[in-house]
């Protein structure tokens, strides 16, 4: 890990209103360096809006956000990115008519430092960051393809590549495996763990519970803009409010089985224990 363990992100009473709707309604959260924090919750719970506020896509209606020692509550998205916080989006967010390489170069160019002069002149640092990001996500052989032609998995990989090309300290992933098959989910899972092992602090939103619970060291469940659960992944399905508002009893049973099997694998003596 490159960062000393300790708070990297501190959100204090974050609120985002759209008219009379409080999409995010007083969310306080601390993310420590080196953690993977997973955010779940029903559709419309406010997860993406929370990401949007923290990463500067939309201004907060209330509350404060600190990234390290810096109060970023009123910072625009590009400045927040340049400070070391990158993100991906739930839906494809790329320039469709440009190539994979060009998209990553743009991220590396604008996401790493403030550009005061007009013009777009790529330096060696941008080229190098682009090559590294392409290699990391496995898109090097598609670098010159137009983005519009890419399948869903490659579009997701492209967003991750663009984010890491900014060389962030912290990465926000919004539904990184939505719409992917099992093998593709496993591929992204391995990638997220590798990024964590390389020192990145990660916050992710996901509805695929296997992904969310297997990766996260801590899970936050939101509902109606509020945090209704925060704790260890294996405790999520034990929380009655979470089961009633989000998981349902079928998922609860499947998750219990999943964690029982995991416990049996890590502790073989537990197999057959009543
Ligand atoms: N720009 C906007 N204007 C008005 N309402 C909005 C806007 N963006 C989001 N909302 C509303 O805010 C609420 C929270 O939406 P948000 O997308 O953050 O939920 P979510 O938890 O990410 O949902 P999902 O899991 O479906 O992505 C929803 O009721 C949504 O309709």
From TrEMBL:
ABC transporter domain boundaries: 9-249
GO molecular function per UniProt: ATP binding; ATP hydrolysis activity; L-isoleucine transmembrane transporter activity; L-phenylalanine transmembrane transporter activity; L-valine transmembrane transporter activity
Single Gene Ontology BP annotation: L-isoleucine import across plasma membrane
Keyword tags: ATP-binding, Nucleotide-binding, Transport
Source domain of life: Bacteria
InterPro entries the record matches: AAA+_ATPase (IPR003593), ABC_AA/LPS_Transport (IPR051120), ABC_transporter-like_ATP-bd (IPR003439), P-loop_NTPase (IPR027417)
Pfam families (alphabetical): ABC_tran (PF00005)
SUPFAM superfamilies attached to this UniProt entry: P-loop containing nucleoside triphosphate hydrolases (SSF52540)
Name of the protein: ABC transporter ATP-binding protein
């Amino acid at each position: 890990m490159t960062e000393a363990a300790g708070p990297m992100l501190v959100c204090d009473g974050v609120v985002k209103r759209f008219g009379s709707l409080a999409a995010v309604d007083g969310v306080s959260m601390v993310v420590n360096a080196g953690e993977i924090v997973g955010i779940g919750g029903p559709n419309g719970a406010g997860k993406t809006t929370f990401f949007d506020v923290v990463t500067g896509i939309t201004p907060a209606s209330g509350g404060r956000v600190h990234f390290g020692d810096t109060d970023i509550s009123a910072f625009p998205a590009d400045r927040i990115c340049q400070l070391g916080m990158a993100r991906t989006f739930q839906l494809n967010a790329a320039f469709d008519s440009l190539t994979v390489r060009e998209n990553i170069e743009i991220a590396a160019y604008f996401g790493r430092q403030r550009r005061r002069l007009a013009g777009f002149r790529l330096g060696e640092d941008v080229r190098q960051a682009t090559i590294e990001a392409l290699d990391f996500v496995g898109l090097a052989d598609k670098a010159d393809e137009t983005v519009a032609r890419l399948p869903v998995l490659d579009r997701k990989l492209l967003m991750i590549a663009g984010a890491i090309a900014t060389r962030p300290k912290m990465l926000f992933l919004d539904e990184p495996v939505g719409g992917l098959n099992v093998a593709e989910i496993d591929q992204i899972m391995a990638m997220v763990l590798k990024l964590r092992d390389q020192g990145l602090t990660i916050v992710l939103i996901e509805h695929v519970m296997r992904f969310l619970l297997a990766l996260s060291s801590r899970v936050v469940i939101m509902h109606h803009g509020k945090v209704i659960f925060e704790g260890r992944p294996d405790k999520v399905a034990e929380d009655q409010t979470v089961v009633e508002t989000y998981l349902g009893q079928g998922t609860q049973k499947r998750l219990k089985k999943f964690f029982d099997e995991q416990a049996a694998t890590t502790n073989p003596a537990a197999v057959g224990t009543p």
